Automatic annotation (TrEMBL):
Enzyme class: isomerase
UniProt xrefs under Gene3D superfamilies: 1.10.10.160, P-loop containing nucleotide triphosphate hydrolases, PCRA, domain 4
Keyword NAD attributed: no
UvrD-like helicase ATP-binding domain ranges (all copies): 34-314
Designated name of the protein: DNA 3'-5' helicase
An example molecular function term from Gene Ontology annotations: 3'-5' DNA helicase activity
Source species of the chain: Amaricoccus solimangrovi
InterPro entries: DExx_box_DNA_helicase_dom_sf, DNA_helicase_UvrD-like_C, DNA_helicase_UvrD/REP, P-loop_NTPase, UvrD-like_ATP-bd
EC numbers for this chain: 5.6.2.4
Span of domain UvrD-like helicase C-terminal: 315-588
Gene Ontology CC, one term: cytosol
Iron-sulfur found in the keyword field: no
Known catalytic reactions: ATP + H2O = ADP + phosphate + H(+); Couples ATP hydrolysis with the unwinding of duplex DNA by translocating in the 3'-5' direction
Length: 786
DNA sequence: GTCTGCGAGGTTTTT
DNA sequence: CCTCGCAGAC
C-alpha cells in the first residue's frame, strides 16, 4: 500500500463504465469444487443474498472462503476488483490472497480489495480524507502515540494524571470508537459516570488529531463509516462497486466494523460472513458476539450454512471440546463430528507447582520428539504450549533453556513496537513530513541533546501560540535564542539536520542510504553503540533489519505506512522448534500435539475476566478453553498446578472449573510424578536425569507415611472429571479428610481442615493463613513421611 | 537536565 | 520479584 491508491482510484473510475464483459464468459469448468463436502459446497455456491457460514473449528472454513472467491471470479459474476474480502489480520489476508491465487491463477493480482478492515479503510479514507477534515497523507498513530497525545491533553487541561491516567482515557476513547460513538453520540450517562469530562476530552483529542493530520486505529474505521453516513453519493459508488462481500472471523467484528459492512452491503446485499460464535475471544476488545448471533435479523432472508465436519482432530479431542463449550448458554450451537480413527484420549495431570509442570512438559516433549510416546516421533514444530497469560511463559523458557530444548515464543512485542524501531521511525517520519509533531517530540531529545521537559514545553508553547508545527517553532526558538545558548545550538543543529534530510527525501534520494545516513548523523546508532546494556546489540541488529526492510519499498512514505499497519514479525518459520504462545495468538492455528498448562481457577478462567464481566467474561474464557483444545490434531494434554509463584509469592489454586466440564469418557487422568513415587514409570518413560533424581530420593518414598498416602490417593484420584451434565458429586471423590483434621502441606506447613467440598479442602494454616487446597496435596499430620 | 530511590502495580492485544 | 513512573536530590 505504497501510494498506489491514486492509480487504483483511476482504475475504479474507468472500470465502472466498462461493460462487464467478463461476466459473459461464464460456465467454465470448476475443478476447484472437487473434494468439497456438501456444506462447503453450499457455502461456495450460494452466491446471491446474505449468507452466514457457521464454521466450527477445523471444518475447512478458509478453504470454503477462498474457493468462494475463486468461484465468483471464475464464473464471471464479478471481476476481481469488485469483490470485497475482509479479514482481521494481515496474516489472514496474505494467506487468503495466496490461496485464491493458487485456485484461479494470477488474476488475483487484480484483487485490490482483499485486506484487513484497517488497511481497506485506509485505502478508502485516503481518497476522501478532506471530507473529514484531513489531508490524504494523514499519518496513522499507534497505541503509544495515542497515549502520549492523551497525556498532552490531560496536562493541558490540568487534570490529575493519577486519577485519570492518560492510558485509561485512551482506552476509554478506544472503546467508544469500537462502538462507533463520536463525541456527540456518547451517552451522557457514560460520559460523566465513567470519566470526569470524558466526552469533552474525547472531543479535544479528536481536535488535536485533526490538527496533526493524524488518525488512530479506531478512526480509520470510524471516519469511513462517517463518510458513508454523511455522503450518500460516496457510499453509493462503493455500494455499487462491491458486488460481493466476504468477511472472515465475523464473530470478532465490533460495532464500527458491523456498520462499515452493513453500509457497504446495502445495495447488492451479497454478503457472506464466516465465523464461529464459539471462538469469539476478543469481547474485551470490543468485539460483539451479538453481531453473529443476530445475523439473520440484520440481513433478512439470510441463508445459514453450518460446517460441522471436522477435518482436524480426533473424536476424543472433539468430544472434550464440545463438552466444555456446551456449558455456555449464549451460542448458536453446532455439533462437530469426524470420521477419523478414535486416537488417544486427552490427558489430564495435576502438578505440585508451576516449575514441576514445566519440567514434566519438557520431558513429555522430549518423549514425543524421540518417538517414545505415540507410534512415531513428533517433530518439535508440531508441538505447541498454549498459555492463558504471557507470564506463564517464563517457567517454560527457563526450563527449556536448561534442558536445551529449542523453542520459540510467538507474539510478544511486535517488531515495530520496539523502542529503537519506533525511534528510528520517528526520525523518518519527521524527515518525510516535517509537520509530524508527535514524531518530532519523541526524538527531539533522543539521543540526549540537553533538550528536556522545559525545552519541549517551550517549543510546544511557541507552536501553539503561532499556529505552526513543532519543527518550525523549534527553528524560531533556536534563531531567536529563546532558550539557553546550549539548547539553542543543539536545537538549531537538529533543525538543520531535518532540513537537509527532508530535502534529500524530496529529491528522491535513495531512501535506504538516506535512512542509514539519518540514523548515523543523528547520533542514534552511536547512542546504542555506547550503551552497555545486554540488549543494546540486539537493538542495533533490529535497526539493521529495519533498514534492510526499507529496500523492499519505493520510498520512505510507502514504508512508513506499511510499518504502521501491516508489518509483523515473522521469524524463522522453518526451524524445528516448540511453539509457546497465548491462547489468543493460537486462534486459527493447529498442531498435532498441544499442551494446555495452567488450568487453575483464577488463572484460567482469569479472575479479572470474571470480576469485570461476570458470566459473560466466564463464557468468553470458556470459549478460550474451546479454542485451546480444538487446536490439537492428535494429542492434547491439560495440566494444572496446585501452587504457583506469583510475583515471587506462593499462591495455591484449585483446578480450573473447566476441568470439571471435561467429559470423563474422553479423558485419561495421569498420576503426577514425584508425589507418590513410582508414578513416573506408570505415566511415562522417564529420561535418565529424572531417574537419577528419583533414586536419590528413594528412601523418602519408601517411608510408611508415603505408602499410606499413596494407597489413599489411589482410591481417590486427581480432581475427578465428571460428565458435564452430571452435577451430583461422585461418591468416590469424597476425600478421606473431615473438618477438624490436622493436616500438613509441604509449602504451608500445619493446619486444620475447616471445610470439605468434594476433593477440595478449606484449610486454616498456622502460618500461612486459610487456603483452598486439593485434598491430594496435603497429608494427615501424623502421616508426615519424615 | 539528569540521576537515584521509593512506591505502586503487575490478562489476553488481530490493527 | 521486577519494572515503570514520579518526586526529590544533585
Amino acid at each position: 500500500m505504497n501510494g498506489d491508491w491514486i492509480d487504483e482510484a483511476e482504475a475504479f473510475e474507468a472500470a465502472e463504465t466498462r461493460p462487464l464483459s467478463a461476466r459473459a464468459a461464464a460456465a467454465r469448468p470448476t475443478p476447484y469444487l472437487d473434494g468439497l463436502n456438501e456444506e462447503q459446497r453450499a457455502a461456495v455456491e450460494t452466491l446471491e443474498g446474505p449468507v452466514l457460514v457457521l464454521a466450527g473449528a477445523g471444518t475447512g472454513k478458509t478453504r470454503a472462503l477462498t474457493t468462494r472467491i475463486a468461484h465468483l471470479i471464475a464464473t464471471g459474476r464479478a471481476r476481481p476488483n469488485e469483490v470485497l474480502a475482509v479479514t482481521f489480520t494481515n496474516k489472514a489476508a496474505r494467506e487468503m490472497r495466496h490461496r485464491v491465487g493458487g485456485l484461479v491463477g494470477a488474476v488475483v493480482e487484480g484483487m485490490p480489495w482483499l485486506g484487513t478492515f484497517h488497511s481497506l479503510s485506509v485505502k478508502i479514507l485516503r481518497r476522501h480524507a478532506e471530507l473529514v477534515g484531513l489531508k490524504s497523507n494523514f499519518t496513522i498513530l499507534d497505541t503509544d502515540d495515542q497515549i502520549r497525545l492523551m497525556r498532552q491533553i490531560v496536562q493541558a487541561e490540568r487534570i490529575d494524571e493519577k486519577r485519570w491516567p492518560p492510558r485509561m482515557l485512551a482506552s476509554l476513547i478506544d472503546g467508544w470508537k469500537n462502538r462507533a460513538l463520536t463525541p456527540e453520540r456518547v451517552p451522557s450517562s457514560e460520559a460523566s459516570a465513567y470519566a470526569h469530562r470524558g466526552t469533552e476530552l474525547y472531543a479535544a483529542y479528536q481536535e488535536r488529531l485533526r490538527t496533526l493530520n493524524a488518525c488512530d486505529f479506531g478512526d480509520l474505521l470510524l471516519h469511513v463509516v462517517g463518510i458513508f453516513q454523511n455522503h450518500p453519493d460516496v457510499l453509493d459508488r462503493y455500494q455499487s462497486w462491491f458486488r460481493y462481500i466476504l468477511v472472515d472471523e465475523y464473530q470478532d467484528t465490533n460495532v464500527a466494523q458491523y456498520l462499515w459492512l452493513r453500509l457497504l452491503a446495502g445495495r447488492h446485499r451479497n454478503i457472506c460472513c464466516v465465523g464461529d460464535d464459539d471462538q469469539s475471544i476478543y469481547g474485551w476488545r470490543g468485539a460483539e458476539v451479538e453481531n453473529i448471533l443476530r445475523f439473520e435479523k440484520d440481513f433478512p432472508g439470510a441463508k445459514v450454512i453450518r460446517l460441522e465436519r471436522n477435518y482436524r482432530s480426533t473424536p476424543h479431542i472433539l468430544a472434550a471440546a464440545s463438552g466444555v463449550i456446551a456449558a455456555n448458554e449464549s451460542r448458536l450451537g453446532k455439533t462437530l463430528w469426524t470420521d477419523v480413527a478414535k486416537g488417544e484420549k486427552l490427558r489430564l495431570i495435576g502438578h505440585w507447582d508451576g516449575e514441576e509442570e514445566a519440567r514434566w512438559i519438557g520431558e513429555e516433549i522430549e518423549a514425543f520428539t524421540r518417538g517414545t510416546r505415540g507410534a512415531e516421533p513428533v517433530p518439535a514444530d508440531a508441538i505447541a504450549i498454549l498459555v492463558r497469560a504471557t507470564h506463564q511463559m517464563r517457567a517454560f523458557e527457563d526450563r527449556f533453556l536448561t534442558i536445551g530444548l529449542p523453542y520459540r515464543v510467538i507474539g510478544g512485542p511486535r517488531f515495530y513496537e520496539r523502542q529503537e524501531i519506533r525511534d528510528a521511525m520517528a526520525y523518518f517520519r519527521v524527515a518525510v513530513s516535517p509537520d509530524d509533531g508527535l514524531a518530532f517530540e519523541r526524538i527531539v531529545n533522543v539521543p540526549k541533546r540537553g533538550l528536556g521537559d522545559k525545552a519541549v514545553q517551550e517549543i510546544n508553547r511557541v507552536a501553539r501560540e503561532n499556529g505552526i508545527s513543532l519543527l518550525e517553532a523549534a527553528r524560531a526558538l533556536a534563531a531567536e535564542r529563546g532558550l539557553s545558548a546550549r539548547a539553542c545550538g543543539q536545537l538549531g543543529a537538529l533543525v538543520a539536520d531535518f532540513d537537509r534530510w527532508h530535502a534529500l527525501a524530496r529529491e528522491g534520494e535513495d531512501h535506504v542510504g538516506l535512512a542509514e545516513a539519518i540514523l548515523e548523523e543523528s547520533g542514534y546508532t552511536q547512542m546504542w553503540q555506547a550503551e552497555k546494556s545486554p540488549d543494546a546489540a540486539g537493538r542495533l541488529e533490529n535497526l539493521k533489519e529495519l533498514v534492510k526492510g526499507l529496500g523492499e519499498f519505493e520510498n520512505l512514505q510507502g514504508f512508513l505506512e506499511h510499518v504502521s499497519l501491516v508489518m509483523d514479525n515473522e521469524q524463522d518459520e522453518g526451524a524445528r522448534k516448540v511453539s509457546i504462545m497465548t491462547l489468543h495468538a493460537a486462534k486459527g492455528l493447529e498442531f498435532p500435539c498441544v499442551f494446555l498448562p495452567g488450568w487453575e481457577d483464577g488463572l484460567f478462567p482469569s479472575q479479572r475476566a470474571m470480576d469485570e464481566s461476570g458470566l459473560k467474561g466466564l463464557e468468553e474464557e470458556r470459549r478460550l478453553a474451546y479454542v485451546g483444545i480444538t487446536r490439537a490434531r492428535r494429542f492434547c494434554t491439560i495440566s494444572f498446578a496446585a501452587n504457583r509463584r506469583v510475583y515471587n509469592q506462593w499462591q495455591s489454586a484449585l483446578p480450573s472449573r473447566f476441568i470439571d466440564e471435561l467429559p470423563a469418557a474422553h479423558v485419561e487422568v495421569l498420576t503426577p510424578p514425584g508425589l507418590y513415587g513410582g508414578g513416573y514409570g506408570a505415566a511415562s518413560p522417564a529420561p535418565m536425569s529424572t531417574l537419577a533424581d528419583r533414586a536419590a530420593e528413594a528412601d523418602v518414598y519408601d517411608s510408611p507415611g508415603w505408602k499410606r498416602m499413596r494407597a489413599r490417593a489411589e482410591s481417590r484420584p486427581v480432581s475427578q472429571p465428571r460428565e458435564a451434565r452430571d452435577m451430583v458429586i461422585d461418591a468416590t471423590a469424597v476425600p478421606a479428610f473431615a473438618a477438624g483434621d490436622r493436616v500438613f502441606h509441604q509449602k504451608f506447613g500445619y493446619g486444620v481442615v475447616r471445610r470439605v467440598e468434594g476433593d477440595k479442602l478449606a484449610i486454616d494454616f498456622e502460618k500461612a493463613g486459610s487456603k483452598n487446597i486439593v485434598a491430594r496435596f496435603v497429608v494427615a499430620a501424623d502421616d508426615i513421611p519424615f
